[in-house]
Amino acid sequence: MIEGILNIVYGLIASGIFLGIGFLYGRYKERKKNHGIPLESYPFYPFTIDDTKMLQFDFDKFNEAVLHLLKNKNHQAGQQLVLIGEQNNVRALLKSTALQNYEKLYKIYNGDKVLDDSTQFLENYKRIVRLIGDSFPDCGIEILLHNLSNPSKALYHIKNNITGRDVEAPATNLVMDLKRRNSNQEDKLNYELNIGARKFKCTTIPIYKENMGIVGAICINVDYNYLNEEVRNHPELKNKFLDSLCKTDMKLGENILSKSEYELAQNGKRHFRDF
């Protein structure tokens, strides 16, 4: 009798385990289904390439994506679409019905949290910009961070200001340009800008967030005319520039050289071109 009871207990335990495993697997499948696939996997990804091979935001595809994701929940694609919508200022451009649909989508996929998460994600990059900027004070080298969750108020942090912009200055074309360059596998490195009498050497580095795409960018802008015309031709400014560039705030005892370079340094090698 005891053996029979034990068999029943074991059977119930086994059944409970299998039911639990089945339940958890079902939850896992449901979560995976709801989390979904990236927005770019759909035919209505809201960007097209025009005849000049420039990336363009496509309102028709955007509206199609909104309607689809209202009916077919996809966490990943929905959040991506919210970010893209905010980046392209759709609230000001959509007509009444389309705007109402987008606002429903924004609420369903918790748009406020999407934007807040993107901002929080960029906080560490803000620290990076600050520390790099503080490494090159008064050198005519500006470094800044764009939060591209809201391109109309994109400038999030700036050090060594040489362009006269303030925090929350817009960067409305930057998102599209970076998306186009990414699709063409191009870097935005060492490019020249001429604005009136001003000239800059610039680099823009996009910041990607997993499952979301481009959420920010770090930009480095060098005041070309200041360095080329003023610093190069005035010994006192040249000395000031080099003093700023070489300025240190503390002295540490770390070794950053390879083993061979360390040995050469111990034997008198003074810099990387000292052969």
Relevant terms:
275 residues, alpha+beta, Beta-Lactamase, 2 domains, five-stranded antiparallel beta sheet, two-stranded antiparallel ribbon, 11 helices, 18% strand, disordered N terminus
Kindly describe this structure.
- The protein is an alpha+beta fold and 275 residues long.
- It has helices at residues 2-35, 59-71, 75-87, 90-93, 96-108, 111-121, 123-135, 174-183, 224-231, 235-246, 259-266; strands spanning 47-49, 55-57, 141-147, 155-159, 188-195, 198-209, 213-223.
- The strands form two sheets. It has a five-stranded antiparallel β-sheet.
- It is built from eleven helices and seven strands.
- It folds into two domains: 39-109; 119-246, 2-Layer Sandwich (Beta-Lactamase), CATH 3.30.450.
Strand content: 15-25%
Radius of gyration: 27 Å
**DSSP strand tally:** 7
Largest sheet: number of strands, sense, barrel closure: 5 strands, antiparallel
Summed up, the helix count is 11
Helix content: 40-55%
Protein name: PAS domain-containing protein
Organism: Flavobacterium chuncheonense
Keywords: Membrane, Transmembrane, Transmembrane helix
Write a concise synopsis of the structure shown.
By secondary structure, the protein is α+β, with helices and mostly antiparallel strands. The protein contains eleven helices and seven strands.
Draw up the topology in text.
Layout: H1 2-35, E1 47-49, E2 55-57, H2 59-71, H3 75-87, H4 90-93, H5 96-108, H6 111-121, H7 123-135, E3 141-147, E4 155-159, H8 174-183, E5 188-195, E6 198-209, E7 213-223, H9 224-231, H10 235-246, H11 259-266
Antiparallel strand pairs: 1-2, 3-4, 3-7, 5-6, 6-7
Helix pairs in contact: 2-3, 2-5
